[in-house]
């Protein structure tokens, strides 16, 4: 709302507690507690009975929230927000024992995603990857949050926008964490593709990042690759291995493996994802159920023993 200031200056937009709570993804009662305990309430004028938050007040609360997402206690976060309002950088935890574990980061990521706070989601993903690598970030931080968000959707039909935002941020973070390989250790590539019509490609981007960090080169063909296109890619690149992801059982049709052309050199084939769980895969296809196992297995198959 735009209000007129007492001095008749250009008015600043101000927000009631409910709107600020919605924006930050916290309960209005939490904002009142932060006000009472830490003095993080609105500093300006009151309109009638209701106090309104100015952009500065909201910016301080956002600092408080980001520090909380990084694992600070409420008192530390409030102290930081009060002191550092003018400073753009949020301090990182100093001591090793202060580095948040997977579950703390997962909670922070969940809160940031629900609040649709993209910068915090991105920052938390970067921190989780830096701290423990892509595999641990995926297994301990991202997957629990994706599952929880998808659970909300399955339960109430809500939060689709949160799922999409999180998915896009994870995709971007995994791509950013994928080193460009000028000389891969494997002379023939590993082909990564979703089964025909399967759009759940995210796990393949995580696999690609983890393999690239071991200098294993891949060709990413992404979501919903038609069987003919897969066959053409195999003929053109003679891959050392093919990884086909199926998330949904309806797309886990083993016939797709039979349509892969035989090349002069042997191509190893892997079926990954829950979509293959209920079907009998052809003998020459190996099922892989976990990311860490997949990274080890694929590396061993295409380059031999671990460097
Ligand atoms: C992100 C997402 C999407 C994104 C995908 C974007 C992308 N580029 O990937 C979008 C929005 C496109 C999407 C679309 C749909 N989705 Co969706 N989606 C998800 C979500 C949240 C995450 C998917 C994912 O990455 N899973 C991977 C990890 C997180 O989960 P997991 O497979 O259970 O992990 C296990 C193993 O696979 C293994 N593992 C994990 N990672 C790796 C990696 C490797 C290499 C290996 C080997 C193993 C491995 O470890 C885990 C423990 O065993 C899931 C919920 C969920 N938790 O899976 C729903 C979910 C899969 N989607 C679902 C549905 C229904 C759909 C749609 C049909 C919705 C619609 N009406 O349009 C469409 C289908 C589109 C299509 N044709 O494929 C349902 C499927 C229900 C079912 N079993 O049928 C789910 C389960 C949500 C739900 N609770 O209902 N979705």
From TrEMBL:
Residues 14-84 form the HTH merR-type domain. The keyword Nucleotidyltransferase does not apply. Keywords: DNA-binding. The keyword DNA-binding applies. It holds the Pfam family B12-binding_2. Gene3D superfamilies: 1.10.1660.10, Cobalamin-binding domain, Methionine synthase domain. SUPFAM superfamilies: Putative DNA-binding domain (SSF46955). This is MerR family transcriptional regulator.
